[in-house]
Amino acid sequence: MITPNIHRQRVRTEIQRLPQGYALKNGRKLVNFSDNDYLGLSFDPRLQIAAEAALQEYGVGAGASRLVTGNHPLYTQLEQDLAAYKQTEDALVFGSGFLANLGVVNGLIPKEDMILADRLVHASIIDAIQLSGAAFQRFRHNDVTHLRELLQKAKKRCWIITESVFSMDGDLAPLAEITTLATEFGAMLIVDDAHGMGVVKHGLCSAENVIWVGTFSKAAGSYGGYVCATKALIEQMVNQARSLIYTTGLPPSVIAANIAALKIIREDTALTALPLQNAQKFDASAQSAIVPVIIGSDEATLAAAQKLEEAGFLVSAIRPPTVPEGTSRLRITFSAVHQQADIDRLKQAISKVTQ
Ligand SMILES: *Cc1c(COP(=O)(O)O)cnc(C)c1O
To answer: Going by C-beta distance under 8 Å and a sequence separation of 6 or more, which residues neighbour residue 282?
Structure first.
């Protein structure tokens, strides 16, 4: 029998998110430093109005898979906007970021090829790779020297997979160097930009060998995943990505909200600068909206999160297997809507609980 570890138990705690970066838990209003709504768009009236209008015009659900009757007109607009945003030829919207990763890996990579992925890539990428049956090696986190060694040794066509912003560490991949390496070795590069979109501007790379994956569930405040790539690769996914073909299209209201969110992200550069600015008020070395405070043991991390909650802050305790053993941490996320005073108070509270 597996001995249950009480510090590893996961539970469905009821939380009601509120506008402006707050949340209700057990009847108390807490400052929410725990979710990925980096621009506060999940409560933005422009998204809400767009979603309501689409709900009235197109109904509640998509009715079928996109390749049957689920491909409502809003999809076309969103995909055109995404391609323009990422400066790629085309784009393809999936049901979620998880499904987009399944689709890009299994729709494009034959099992005869080899996948080289950063050691810290997201669980959805690992699952996608395992399903693909392709040879797979991990390179040390952000280590381009190690990646080069693996590319030199590989006897097959290689696909490199990394994240732009790492979801549990908040650090950035050296994308320019990795892109150069990919080009040098004739490899393809897949970049998961889940936590970069709307927060961190990468020199947007429209190179033919770079494929972008992303999600509307983080800074865009809504839901749904996407892949941006050449027309040929998108067409290949439309024909071969099972996570696109065998699932119902997203509700029209969700796509309408995504169109509104992407417009804001492309146009409002003052807003998109704020999450990083707020993170840097907390930690001057922050590179994204995510700042980890590594504590070590599961128990101490849970206790620290509990004390922060008592002080009025919602901060998540992240434990293995989400992060490597012995690196349990508080994962603090900053949003454009956070107030300076709340960030200052959080800083004081954290220094108390981690003493
Ligand atoms: C959240 C996340 C995903 C999954 O996106 P969803 O839209 O929530 O399914 C994929 N990759 C990374 C790096 C993520 O952080």
So the answer is: 291, 332, 334, 343, 346, 347
DSSP structure class, residue 334 = -
| Cα-to-centroid distance, 102 and ligand 1 (Å) | 11
Give me 175's structure tokens.
């994308």
β-strand pairing of 210-215 with 313-314? unpaired
Distance 215 CA to ligand 1 centre (A): 6
Report how far apart, in Å, the C-alpha atoms of 285 and of each of 113, 227, 260, 288, 292 are.
38, 30, 32, 9, 11
CB atoms inside a 10 Å sphere around CB 42: 21
Distances (CA, A) of 158 to 135, 214, 235, 237, 311: 9, 21, 21, 18, 49
216 lines ligand 1 (CB under 6 A): no
Residue 167 bears catalytic tag: yes
For the four alpha carbons of 279, 283, 284 and 285, in that order, the dihedral sign comes to: negative
Active-site residue identified among 167, 217, 222, 278:
167
Does residue 215 contact residue 226 with C-beta atoms inside 8 Å?
Answer: yes
Q: Which atom of ligand 1 is nearest to the CA of 166?
A: 13
Q: What is the pLDDT along the chain (355 residues), one digit of tens a residue?
A: 555 677 777 888 899 999 999 999 999 999 999 999 999 999 999 999 999 999 999 999 999 999 999 999 999 999 999 999 999 999 999 999 999 999 999 999 999 999 999 999 999 999 999 999 999 999 999 999 999 999 999 999 999 999 999 999 999 999 999 999 999 999 999 999 999 999 998 755 668 899 999 999 999 999 999 999 999 999 999 999 999 999 999 999 999 999 999 999 999 999 999 999 999 999 999 999 999 999 999 999 999 999 999 999 999 999 999 999 999 999 999 999 999 999 999 999 999 998 7
Q: Model pTM?
A: 0.96
Q: Which of 32, 72, 86, 122 is catalytic?
A: 122
Rounded Cα distance, 163 and 170, in Å: 10
121 Cα nearest atom in ligand 1: 13
| Active-site residue, 36 included | yes
